[in-house]
Design a protein that fits this description.
Elements: E1 12-16, H1 20-26, H2 31-52, E2 56-63, H3 71-94, E3 97-102, H4 110-122, E4 129-137, H5 139-155, H6 166-170, E5 183-186, E6 205-208, H7 218-228
Parallel strand pairs: 1-2, 1-5, 2-4, 3-4, 5-6
The protein binds farnesyl diphosphate (FPP).
Farnesyl diphosphate binds at residues 17-22, 35, 38-39, 42, 59, 61, 66, 80-81, 84, 133, 188, 213.
C-alpha cells in the first residue's frame, strides 16, 4: 500500500544528476568512481519511479556541453552508458519500462548508438513507464533543430506561417507526445537548468537538494515527491492546487 503522499504521483519527473565528481573528490577517489556510484543511484531511482507509478522519468546523462570534459572522462562515461544499457535492459523489460533516448543521437559514438537503439527496440512494447535518457542533449540544439525542420516545411509549402503554433513546435522536440515535466530535481546544490528541457519546463516545479547524486536515496526521492504534492501549481492562473484534486 503506497503512503498517502505517494498516491497520484507526478506524470513526469526530470532529474539533473549532479555531484558525481565532488562525491569522488570528497572520498579522494577518481571522478570516474563518482560516475560509477552515480550509475547505482540511477538504478535505484528508476526502480523507485516505476514502483511509485511515475509515468515518465527523464535523466540528464550527457549534455551537448559534456564533450568538453577531459577525453578520459568522456570515454569512461560512454563505457559506463554501454555497461548500464547492457546490464539493465533485461531489468527494464522485467519492469515493463520503455527506454527512450532524447538528444542528438547522431553525435554519439557508433557503438554507444547501437547499444541505445537496440535497447530502445527491445523495450519498445513496454508501457509501464518511459525512461528518457538525455544523451548528447541540449535544449538549444533541440530547439534549433525544431526551427530548421519547421523552416524546411515552410519552404516546401507543407505548412503555412499561420499554422505555426506552440503545439507544432512541441511536436518537433525529442519529448513529442509526452507530458511536460511536473517536477525537476537537481542534486548537489547547484541551482540552474544547464540547457535542460528549457521549453518543456515552462510550468515545472523545481526542487534543489544539496545531496550529491551518488548519495541520493529512494527515501529522499520519496520525500521530494511528497513535498511536491503540497506545491500550489497555478499555471499562470489564480489557483490550481494538486491537493484539491484539480488537474496537474
Ligand atoms: C554530473 O556530475 C554528472 C554527469 C555529467 C553525468 C551523469 C552520469 C551518471 C549519473 C552516471 C552514468 C549514467 C547512466 C545513465 C548510467 P559532475 O561530474 O558534473 O559532478 P561535479 O559537478 O561534482 O564535478
Amino acid at each position: 500500500m503506497k503512503s498517502e503522499a505517494l498516491q497520484h504521483p507526478p506524470s513526469h519527473v526530470a532529474v539533473i544528476m549532479d555531484g558525481n565528481g565532488r562525491w569522488a573528490k570528497k572520498k579522494l577517489m577518481n571522478r570516474i568512481k563518482g560516475h560509477e556510484k552515480g550509475a547505482d543511484t540511477v538504478r535505484t531511482i528508476v526502480t523507485a519511479s516505476r514502483e511509485i507509478g511515475v509515468g515518465v522519468l527523464t535523466l540528464y546523462a550527457f549534455s551537448t556541453e559534456n564533450w568538453a570534459r577531459p577525453e578520459t572522462e568522456v570515454t569512461a562515461l560512454m563505457s559506463l552508458l554501454k555497461k548500464f544499457i547492457r546490464t539493465e535492459t533485461p531489468r527494464l523489460k522485467e519492469q515493463n519500462i520503455r527506454l527512450n533516448a532524447i538528444g542528438n543521437t547522431e553525435g554519439l559514438p557508433a557503438d554507444v548508438r547501437e547499444y541505445v537503439f537496440a535497447a530502445m527496440e527491445e523495450t519498445a512494447g513496454n508501457d509501464g513507464m518511459i525512461l528518457n535518457l538525455a544523451l548528447n542533449y541540449g535544449s538549444r540544439e533541440e530547439l534549433t533543430s525544431a526551427v530548421k525542420t519547421i523552416a524546411s516545411k515552410l519552404q516546401k509549402e507543407e505548412i503555412a506561417e499561420e499554422d505555426i503554433t506552440e503545439a507544432v513546435i512541441t511536436d518537433q522536440l525529442y519529448t513529442a507526445g509526452q507530458p511536460e515535466p511536473d517536477l525537476l530535481i537537481r542534486t548537489s546544490g547547484e541551482m540552474r537548468l544547464s540547457n535542460f528541457l528549457l521549453w518543456q519546463s515552462a510550468y515545472t516545479e523545481f526542487f534543489f537538494t544539496d545531496t550529491l547524486w551518488p548519495d541520493f536515496t529512494r527515501r529522499e526521492f520519496e520525500e521530494i515527491l511528497s513535498h511536491f504534492k503540497t506545491r500550489n501549481r497555478r499555471f499562470g492562473k489564480t489557483t490550481c492546487s494538486l491537493s484539491d484534486g484539480s488537474p496537474q
